[in-house]
Amino acid sequence: MLHGMDAISLTPDDLKRLAQATMPFGKHKGMALADLPGPYLAWFAREGFPPGDIGRLLALMHELDHNGLRPLLDPLRMRKQ
Shortest CA distance to 23 belongs to which of 15, 35, 33? Predict the structure, then answer.
């Protein structure tokens, strides 16, 4: 079960979105969701994830981080040319 959320739905594009989307606000605005520090994600888990899709993605990223699964996102990152 997710910390701070009752349930999470996972779509096929969610992992790709985590690897490519950026944080829209706050201390780490502009950083890829996949690169957000674990303590920042843990703070959201304690204090509550924001509403909507961004909160759902942050909760998913927290679970991946907490369970050591960040490397799953590596093949999905946008390559800089």
Answer: 33
